[in-house]
Write a structure and sequence with these properties.
Layout (H helix, E strand, L loop, with lengths): L1 H10 L2 H5 L26 E2 L2 E2 L10 H16 L11 H10 L20 H22 L1
Antiparallel strand pairs: 1-2
Length: 140
């Protein structure tokens, strides 16, 4: 998954925006440039099983409240960061926080190898994501 994510992030110019040769450095010597979290960063069980995205965050009152409060506070701790939700579920959670859309890299597909639509979704959104990175760079 990390290999896919690095390739995708480099493909939209994030490494240039951050002044590194590759976004792989975010997971090594330049981890100071990365703040990561999960949309739901605590253990969640639905009917005794690990939460796997169903019901959607915006369709369950506790999960919705969690995104609007906890995730929002996490994102506000890094006010100048570009927020990169990995996939549709994370994107929905980020939308619930009402942070500025100027900070969000919308359309980034989940980089998992199990995401069979990853390459197509990335290709469709690549130009818009590249432009968002450029816009974010100029504003930060």
């Amino acid at each position: 998954m990390r290999t896919n994510m690095i390739s995708m992030l480099n493909g939209i110019g994030l490494q240039t925006a951050l002044g590194v040769s590759s976004t792989a450095q975010l997971f090594a010597e330049r981890s100071d440039l990365l703040a990561s979290t999960s949309a739901i960063c605590h253990a969640v069980f639905i009917q005794g099983a690990n939460y796997s995205g169903s019901p959607a965050v915006d369709r369950h009152p506790v999960l919705t409240a969690f995104a609007r409060q906890v995730l929002k506070e996490n994102l506000e701790m890094v006010p100048d960061a570009l927020v990169i939700p990995l996939g549709k579920a994370a994107s929905k959670a980020v939308e619930l926080t009402n942070i500025s859309p100027d900070r969000v890299l919308s359309g980034f597909p989940h980089p998992s190898g199990a995401n069979g639509h990853r390459a197509r979704l990335y290709a469709e959104a690549r130009e818009a994501m590249t432009q968002r990175v450029r816009t974010w760079t100029r504003s930060s």
